[in-house]
UniProtKB/TrEMBL annotation:
<feature type="binding site">
    <location>
        <position position="232"/>
    </location>
    <ligand>
        <name>substrate</name>
    </ligand>
</feature>
<feature type="binding site">
    <location>
        <position position="230"/>
    </location>
    <ligand>
        <name>substrate</name>
    </ligand>
</feature>
<dbReference type="InterPro" id="IPR010059">
    <property type="entry name" value="Uridine_phosphorylase_euk"/>
</dbReference>
<dbReference type="GO" id="GO:0004850">
    <property type="term" value="F:uridine phosphorylase activity"/>
</dbReference>
<dbReference type="InterPro" id="IPR035994">
    <property type="entry name" value="Nucleoside_phosphorylase_sf"/>
</dbReference>
<dbReference type="GO" id="GO:0006218">
    <property type="term" value="P:uridine catabolic process"/>
</dbReference>
<feature type="domain" description="Nucleoside phosphorylase">
    <location>
        <begin position="65"/>
        <end position="317"/>
    </location>
</feature>
<feature type="binding site">
    <location>
        <position position="106"/>
    </location>
    <ligand>
        <name>phosphate</name>
    </ligand>
</feature>
<feature type="region of interest" description="Disordered">
    <location>
        <begin position="1"/>
        <end position="21"/>
    </location>
</feature>
<feature type="binding site">
    <location>
        <begin position="150"/>
        <end position="153"/>
    </location>
    <ligand>
        <name>phosphate</name>
    </ligand>
</feature>
<comment type="similarity">
    <text>Belongs to the PNP/UDP phosphorylase family.</text>
</comment>
<dbReference type="InterPro" id="IPR000845">
    <property type="entry name" value="Nucleoside_phosphorylase_d"/>
</dbReference>
<dbReference type="GO" id="GO:0005829">
    <property type="term" value="C:cytosol"/>
</dbReference>
<dbReference type="Pfam" id="PF01048">
    <property type="entry name" value="PNP_UDP_1"/>
</dbReference>
<protein>
    <recommendedName>
        <fullName>Nucleoside phosphorylase domain-containing protein</fullName>
    </recommendedName>
</protein>
<dbReference type="GO" id="GO:0009166">
    <property type="term" value="P:nucleotide catabolic process"/>
</dbReference>
C-alpha cells in the first residue's frame, strides 16, 4: 500500500509514487493510491451499482484474477458465456449469468469464476470512470494480482480488417505516450505503459496453424473522437482535405502506429498508475488507408470480434493451468502465477 499522506511534499509524494509504480502489494493485493478511501465509512461504486457497505465485495469478487473489458454489453455477455465454456465453469442447474451492474443502467458486468467481463462504453471518459471503480473494487475485494485486458475493435493503419492487434504502446492523437488530464485546473500527464511481458505472452499464443488471420503488435493510437479525431472524411464536419488526412495517417504509420481506437491510453495509464498489469487486444474492422466507412457485413464483423476473445481465452486458460500446477506443488497455498514466481525465486536464492 502507498505510504503517501496529506502532509507529504510534492517531491516526496512523487518519489513514493514512482517507487510504488507497477507493483502489487507483497501479498498480491492492489495498492490504492488514494489515502482518503480508507478513511471513509463506506465506498459507493455508483456506476457499478455496488458498495463496500452494501455488499460483501471480498466474498463476491475476492477470487477475481482477470478483468476483461470491452465496449458493448452484448460483446461482454457473449465473452462471459464463451469463457465459461472454455474454462469449464459450471453454473448451478437452472441458473444463468446475471448482469451484476444491471441497476446502474451504465455498464454491464458478468462474473464467471475468476473472470470478470465488463462493458466500458465508448471513449476515454466512459472507461476512465469505470476503471476508477473497478480498481477500487479490486482493492475492496482484496483480489490477488488481477490482470486487466481490453478486448476491443479498432481501425487498422496498413493492416486489413480481421487482423488482431496486441498493443505494445498506446499514444494519443499527438503521438504522445501519456494520458493528459486536467486535475484541479492543472494539466497532468500519466505514462501510458503496458506490460511488455504480457505483450510477448499474447503474441506467443497466436497460432498461425489454427488461426486463419494475422496477429500482430505495434503502437495503438487512442483518440477522443471517432470522426474528426481519427481523421475521417465522413463525419458531420470536416475542415481538412483527403490529402491532409492521408498525410496524418502516413505520419502515424511511420511512427509505428498500426491501429486506432478510443480507450487504450487511459486504460494503460490508469492500470499502470495502479500497478496493475494490463493488455489491449483489438481486432481491426477496416484498413483506414483504404477508407473511412465500416462496411464489413454484420456476420463477418461478429466473427472478427471473436478473434481477440479466442486469444484472451488461450491466455486465461494458460494462466489458470499454471496456478493449478503450482497449487499442486504447494498444497493449494499459492493463488497466482506471480506469487509462485516469488516463491520460486526465493527458493532458488536459498539453493
Ligand atoms: O469496440 P470497442 O471496444 O467499443 O472499441 C472501439 O469501438 C468504438 C468506436 O466504434 C470505440 O469505443 C473504439 O475504441
Ligand atoms: O475505425 C475505427 C474502428 C473501430 N473503432 C475505432 O475507434 N475506429
Amino acid at each position: 500500500m502507498t505510504t503517501w499522506s496529506p502532509g507529504m511534499s510534492d517531491e516526496e509524494a512523487a518519489k513514493e509514487r514512482a517507487e510504488a509504480d507497477d507493483e502489487y502489494n507483497f501479498d498480491g493485493t492492489v495498492q490504492l493510491k488514494n489515502p482518503h478511501i480508507e478513511l471513509m465509512d463506506q465506498d459507493i461504486l455508483y456506476h457499478l451499482a455496488l458498495g463496500s457497505g452494501s455488499h460483501d465485495l471480498q466474498e463476491m469478487f475476492g477470487e477475481i484474477k482477470f478483468v476483461c473489458l470491452g465496449g458493448t454489453p452484448n460483446r461482454m455477455k457473449e465473452f462471459a458465456y464463451y469463457i465459461m465454456d472454455e474454462i469449464g465453469y459450471k453454473l448451478p442447474a437452472g441458473t444463468q449469468l446475471q448482469d451484476i451492474s444491471a441497476f446502474s443502467y451504465r455498464y454491464s458486468m458478468y462474473k464467471v469464476g475468476p473472470v470478470l467481463s465488463i462493458s466500458h462504453g465508448m471513449g476515454i471518459s466512459s472507461i476512465g470512470i469505470l476503471l476508477h471503480e473497478v480498481i477500487k473494487l479490486m482493492y475492496h475485494a482484496k483480489c490477488k494480482d488481477p490482470i486487466f485486458i481490453r478486448i476491443g475493435t479498432c481501425g487498422g493503419i496498413g493492416i486489413e480488417g480481421g487482423t488482431v492487434v496486441v498493443t505494445n504502446e498506446s499514444v494519443d492523437g499527438q503521438l504522445r505516450s501519456s494520458y493528459e488530464m486536467t486535475v484541479l485546473g492543472k494539466t497532468i500527464y500519466r505514462p501510458a505503459k503496458l506490460d511488455q511481458k504480457l505483450v510477448r505472452e499474447f503474441l506467443a499464443l497466436a497460432d498461425p496453424a489454427q488461426d486463419p488471420y494475422e496477429t500482430v503488435t505495434g503502437k495503438t493510437m487512442c483518440t477522443y473522437d471517432f470522426y474528426e479525431g481519427q481523421g475521417r472524411l465522413d463525419g458531420a464536419f470536416c475542415d481538412y482535405t483527403e490529402a491532409d488526412k492521408m498525410e496524418y495517417l502516413q505520419r502515424c504509420k511511420d511512427f509505428g502506429v498500426i491501429n486506432i481506437e478510443m480507450e487504450s491510453i487511459v486504460f494503460s495509464a490508469l492500470t499502470h498508475h495502479a500497478g496493475i498489469k494490463a493488455a489491449v487486444v483489438c481486432v481491426a474492422l477496416l484498413n483506414r488507408l483504404n477508407g473511412d466507412q465500416v462496411m464489413a457485413p454484420k456476420e463477418v464483423m461478429n466473427e472478427w470480434q471473436k478473434r481477440p476473445q479466442i486469444l484472451v481465452s488461450r491466455f486465461i486458460r494458460r494462466q489458470l493451468a499454471k496456478i493449478g500446477r503450482l497449487n499442486k506443488v504447494h498444497g493449494g497455498s499459492i493463488k497466482s502465477p506471480r506469487r509462485f514466481k516469488l516463491v520460486q525465486q526465493e527458493s532458488e536464492a536459498h539453493e
